[in-house]
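re the bet — no i am not wrong, look at it urself. input seq straight from the record:
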Amino acid sequence: MTDPGTEAGTPGEAIASPPTAFGSGLVALDVIVSGIRGKPPALLAGGTCGNVLTILSYLGWRTFPLARLNGDRASVRLQADLRRWKVRLDFAHLDPPGSTAMVVQRIHRDGDGLPFHTFSWNCPSCSARLPWYRPVHKAAARAVASQMGESNVFFFDRVSRGTLLLAEESARRGAIVVFEPSGFGDIGLFREALRLSHILKYSRDRMGQLDEVGPIQGPLLEIETLGRWGLCYRTRLGHSTDQDWIRVDAYTTGRFKDAAGAGDWCTAGLLHKVGKCGIKGLQDLSSDHLADAISFGQALAVWNCAFEGARGGMYQVSQEMFHSQIACILSGKKWEAGEETLFQEVGEEPVSPICPACPPSP
C-alpha cells in the first residue's frame, strides 16, 4: 500500500513521520442491528471521537483516544476493535475508570425501501438503559497534558473542564483544535470551546440554533453539514474577511446502505488533508487546497454510505480497493462497492454477554 501520508498530502509535501492526533469525547461500543433479517448484531468501536480517530489511524496517523475505559466486557470488545486498526490506547484507561458507553444503531427501511437508521440507548436483549459517556476529569487531564507531547490535531466532541484544559494545552503546542459538538451542554464551557477551536464542524439537524450562543468568532474554519445536500463552510484562512458561506454539494453513490458515520469520515478526510503540519499548516492553507480537502472528506463520506455501520467499509474492502474507489468518486467515475469480505469476524456476536444488566451466558 502507498504511504497515505505522502499519497494524500499537499502536493509536493513529504511527511517524514506519521502525524499525530489526540481526541477526547465519545468513544463507545456500537451495537449495529442490521437491516438483514436474522443477522447477528455487530459490536464495533464507535462514537464520534472513536470513529474519527480510528479512521485517521486507517489513513496512516498515530491516534490516541483519551478515555476512562475499564475492564468490563464491553470495554474488552471495544479495545480489541481499536487495536485491530492500530489505535493507540496509552491514555484510554484514565482515572477514575468508568463503564463503557454503548449505543444501539438499528437499520430500517422506509415505505419506499430506502434504508435509514435510528439510535437507542437501551439494550436490545433486556431493554435496560445502557451505560453512557463519562468525561475526563481535570486531574487526569493535567497528567495527560504532561505526557502527550506535541501533536498535529486535538479533536473533541463534548465539553468538560478537563477537555478544555487539554484543548488549550494542545493549541499552545501548535496543534489544530477541532470541535464537533453534538449538543450545547454547559453554555459557559461551550462558549469557551468555541473560543479555543480552530475548526468548528456541526450538523444543521443537531445544532440548528447555534447562533443563540452568540457570535462565533474563534474558529478559522466553520463547517455546517447538510446531510444528503452536502455542506457549507466559511473561513478566515488566507486573509479572508468577508466570511461568506460557500456551498458544496454532496457526491452521489450508486449503492446506499447507511448514512451513519458519514460525518465522521468527512471530518477525518478533511483533517488528513489539512492537519499534518498543525496550526501553522492550516494558517498557510490556500483556498484551493481547502476546497480539495473538503472534497476529499465528502468523497470519504459518500463511500461510507455504501456500507452498513459507521465504519462498515473498513471491514469489507482492502485498503488498496478503498483508495481506488475514493479516486473514482473524486474523478466522477462510476464505482462499485463490491461484496468482498476480508474480515470474517466483524464483531458479530450476541449482545447479552456485553450489556452489564444482562445475566452472563452459561
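see?? The domain at 4-9+17-25+49-97+134-331 is CATH 3.40.1190.20 (UDP-N-acetylmuramoyl-L-alanine:D-glutamate ligase). told u. also The chain is about 30% helix and 15% strand. so pay up
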